[in-house]
Specification:
By secondary structure, the chain is of the alpha/beta class. The protein contains 5 helices and 10 strands. The chain has helices spanning about 60-70, 125-140, 155-165, 170-180, 220-230, and strands at about 5-10, 15-20, 35, 45-50, 80, 90-95, 100, 115-120, 140, 185-190. The strands form 2 sheets. It has a 7-stranded mixed beta sheet with strand order 2-1-7-8-6-4-5. Strands 9-3-10 form a 3-stranded antiparallel beta sheet. The protein binds zinc ion. The site of zinc ion (ZN) has 7 residues, from strand 1 and helix 2. This is M12 family metallopeptidase. It comes from Pseudomonas shahriarae. GO terms for molecular function: metalloendopeptidase activity; zinc ion binding.
């Protein structure tokens, strides 16, 4: 039995995208490619502040920050943890689902509300994965399995049944999270990447045995795509 934790992307339409992110039997690495929306990317070279919605131990804060900063070498953005004021990205550890607004959609969220929720508990081996994945959404990246070249042989009935039973998703929830890319005309695509941190495991939800497992770290293509979206800054020639 696979134990999925939900991870979903919150969208400005309030139509949450939810995705099963965590699969305890993990592994086969597969990739799907990165994708995102131009209109939701942050301005390059800007500073993104993040904060916690409630008291979090220093140790846990540091661990989450480390996860967030896994992206840092591959973007030209500064990530700054702020205290006592709401960050642009506001993190809450609560509930069972994990989700994040995509990119600058976070700016549309009321200051009293989180823009990123981590439902995976810190004692889960999937916690660090979840932080990196959710922050990928916060940077504007979408789920890799929705890439048009993914061509995943979904067993739709199995997906409806499993996600309905395990997570209470409606067929519509499953459709919007697994099968249909919202606004594909507005999306920016990199290569399809089965190893992406933004890819869902497909184990038990497809026909055949070529399932994508749980990806625990940023893939090379994740890094390359992040760099493409947030390119290196050119400071010009330093004076001699
Ligand atoms: Zn996700």
């Amino acid at each position: 039995m696979h134990n999925y934790n939900l991870v979903r992307m919150a969208k400005p339409t309030d139509n949450f995208e939810r995705l099963p992110e965590n699969n305890n039997d993990a592994p086969a690495v597969r990739r799907k490619r990165s994708l995102g929306y131009t209109t939701k990317f942050w301005e390059n070279a800007s500073t993104i502040t993040f904060s916690f919605m409630h008291d979090v131990s220093d140790e846990l804060k540091y661990r989450i920050e480390l996860g967030i900063r896994k992206w840092e070498p591959f973007v030209s953005l500064a990530f700054e943890l702020v205290e006592n004021v709401p960050g642009m990205i506001r993190i809450a550890l609560q509930g069972k689902d994990s989700y994040s607004f995509i990119g600058t959609d976070a700016l549309k969220v009321d200051f009293n509300e989180p823009t990123m929720v981590l439902g995976t508990t810190p004692d889960s081996p999937l916690f660090d994965h979840t932080v990196q994945h959710e922050f990928g959404h916060a940077l504007g990246f979408h789920h890799a399995h929705l890439h048009p070249e993914a061509r995943i042989p979904w067993n739709k009935e199995a997906a409806y049944e499993f996600l309905g039973k395990q997570h209470g998703w409606t067929r519509e929830d499953v459709d919007s999270n697994l099968f249909e890319l919202e606004s594909p005309h507005a999306a920016v695509f990199g290569d399809y990447d089965k190893l992406s941190i933004m890819h869902y495991p497909t184990t038990n939800l497809i026909y055949g045995n070529d399932a994508v497992g749980l990806n625990l770290t940023l893939s090379d293509k994740d890094k390359a795509f992040a760099r493409k979206i947030y390119p290196a800054l050119n400071y010009g020639q330093l004076p001699a």
